[in-house]
Backbone:
C-alpha cells in the first residue's frame, strides 16, 4: 500500500497530498489484506475484521482530506 501511494505521488508530483493519505496505509492496508484473506479462505472472522478496518481507514482518510484541504490549503 505504501509503495502504491508513493508511486502515485511520484507520478503526480504533488507531495503535499501525502500528509492526509496515511490512513490509507494504516488501517486501510492491513484491513484490505484481512478482507482478501477472509474472502479467499472463506473465513468469517478475518473478513469482518478487514471490513471494519477498511471502513475505519476510509472514514479517517475522508476526514483528514476534508480537514487538511479546508484548513491547511496553501493557496
Residues:
Amino acid at each position: 500500500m505504501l509503495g502504491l501511494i508513493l508511486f502515485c505521488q511520484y507520478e503526480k508530483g504533488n507531495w503535499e497530498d501525502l500528509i492526509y493519505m496515511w490512513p490509507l496505509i494504516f488501517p486501510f492496508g492491513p484491513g484490505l489484506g484481512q478482507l482478501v484473506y477472509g474472502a479467499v479462505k472463506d473465513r468469517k472472522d478475518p473478513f469482518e475484521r478487514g471490513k471494519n478496518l477498511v471502513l475505519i481507514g476510509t472514514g479517517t482518510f475522508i476526514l483528514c482530506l476534508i480537514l487538511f484541504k479546508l484548513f491547511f490549503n496553501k493557496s
User: Anything to note?
Assistant: Residues 44-71 form the longest helix (28 residues). The chain has one domain: 2-71. The chain has a mean pLDDT of 90.
